[in-house]
Amino acid sequence: MSECRRALRLGITIGDPAGIGPEVVSAALRSLDTEGVSYRVYGDIDAVALAGGLPEYVEVRNTASTRVTPGKPNPLAAPGVIEAIRWAARECLSGAVDAMVTGPISKEVIGEAGFPFPGHTELLQEIATEIRGGGTGRAVMMLVGGSLRVGLATVHCPLRDVPDMLTREGIAEVLGVMHRDLRRLFGFGQPRIAVCGLNPHAGEGGRFGEEELRTIGPAVRLSREKGIEATGPYAADSLFHRAAGGEFDAVLAMYHDQGLAPLKVHAFGKAVNVTLGLPLIRTSVDHGTAFDIAGTGRASPASMLEALALARKLAASPKAPRDETRGEE
């Protein structure tokens, strides 16, 4: 980063204003300084004020669409939640901010409001495509915590749909995104990526399922032909222990809970969700809206602090996606 480059700017969305997002954003920002970085918060600013407020140096982008009460989710607030994400993503893609950090949203609440997005990952991919056009890449969800980095081949979908969603080309594409961004953003020269099987014991040679033989194994071989150090498929029940011990740099899980359950046991509260594959940097907390404790002051900002720290680190990478033509605002 050149000496004339301005301080980093991080955009933060609070998520659902009735959840713990306003509390953890407020607590995190009140514990940080501004050395080398500035912050911009998007969402229901009144909800953040109620949860403790923001330091004076923080810029705000208010998208409140209805008044809410902590712990009482309201679908009428969903338009403001979605607009906050869109606004932050647009400014991230334009270079007005260097990275975005997202607070937790409720997929049930935004669904009740009529929005079709199953999560941030899918919404961000749509926004990037709208703004940048085709060829923006495939969004891949990866969780980072402790000594584990876990990517997902499928994200928010019913478990019964997973086998049909897995294809050789799709898994190879995800491995390609992980390989590229583990090198580009995380600094691995040749990342070692272990691939989970779908079935118990990775199918036991076809006895417990044939996805490993027909789909996952061929995807690994295809990726290796492209120079990616992918191995597997391995039995998932022992793989994460091996990865946590340093045998692999990252793991690709076949479905959401296969990857996130062991990672959250390993590093709950200190894990960070990272979106790979898009022309922006996005990190997020590893927890949900926790409506049951919203407004009680019991929510920990630990994961938000980790997400902010990782976003800052990734944005400072000389290979981070950025618009070098942007001007000062």
What's the pLDDT, averaged over the residues? 92
**Which strand order spans the largest sheet, edge to edge or round the barrel?**
3-2-1-4-11-10-5-6-9-7-8
The CATH homologous superfamily of the largest domain is named Isopropylmalate Dehydrogenase
- Please tell me the total number of domains: 2
Characterize the quaternary organization of these chains: single chain
Question: Given the C-alpha coordinates, what overall shape results?
Answer: globular
- Structural class of the secondary elements? alpha/beta
CATH class category name of the largest domain: Alpha Beta
Q: Which consecutive residue ranges, at least 5 long each, have pLDDT under 50? A: 324-329
Strand residue percentage:
15-25%
| Euclidean distance between termini CA atoms | 19 Å
Instruction: Count the E strands.
Output: 11
CATH topology of the largest domain: Isopropylmalate Dehydrogenase
Instruction: Please work out how many helical segments DSSP would assign.
Output: 11
